[in-house]
Specification:
Length: about 180
């Protein structure tokens, strides 16, 4: 199978990246992770890039970033999908406009509910009985693009933000890979 090249954007531990890397090694999975971008050199997920010898770039968002240079880099690497996987910065609107391929994101709630940050605490404060994760296309409005897939979990009275995170993330790993399979089906 000829695989398309994907780029994964991260900010933190990279557990979604790890699962995507696992999936990408499967023969029938439609993408290969060819490039990794992080907004911080402290992202633990960068260890995976080094371990798997995947080229990566750290963006210094305090400096003015040359969008054209990033776009050129993605073009050079024939990237046809960007996956935001725990990328905690808002993507530049011009970048979204100019990258004329697909950009998708995974969010730890059942969108359109609980967009933004601090999701697990807000879900618990909202006395929800159900939560989950959503994979969606990235649009210029935060966490609002077209939904590709959602997976649900039940919230138990004993759950706190930590247990909820573990349960939701376990769903995320399947949801992200399944979404990518659906996109290229
Ligand atoms: C994931 O749970 C993802 O849904 C969330 O960050 C976590 C990253 O974990 N993303 C957002 O909250 C985006 N608004 P990871 O670095 O271990 O994949």
């Amino acid at each position: 199978m000829v695989k398309r090249n994907a780029c994964v954007f991260i900010s933190g531990s990279g557990s979604n990246l790890k699962e995507l890397l696992k999936s990408s090694r499967e023969y029938n999975f439609p993408v290969n992770i060819a490039y990794i971008v992080s907004n911080t050199k402290r992202a633990k997920g960068l260890k995976l890039a080094k371990l798997h010898k995947i080229p990566f770039r750290v963006l210094d968002l305090n400096k003015i970033i040359n969008l054209e240079s990033i776009l050129k880099e993605l073009d050079k690497r024939k990237i046809s999908l960007i996956c935001l996987a725990g990328y905690m910065k808002i993507l530049n609107k011009k970048f979204i406009n100019k990258f004329n391929k697909k950009i998708i994101n995974i969010h730890p709630s059942l969108l359109p509910k609980y967009k933004g940050l601090d999701t697990f605490k807000r879900v618990l404060d909202g006395n929800e009985k159900l939560t989950g994760c959503t994979v969606h296309y990235v649009s210029k409005k935060l966490d609002s693009g077209k939904i590709i897939l959602k997976k649900k979990i039940f919230i138990e009275s004993s759950d706190d933000a930590k247990t909820l995170k573990t349960k939701v993330q376990a769903k995320e790993y399947r949801a992200y890979s399944e979404s990518i399979i659906n996109i290229f089906r």
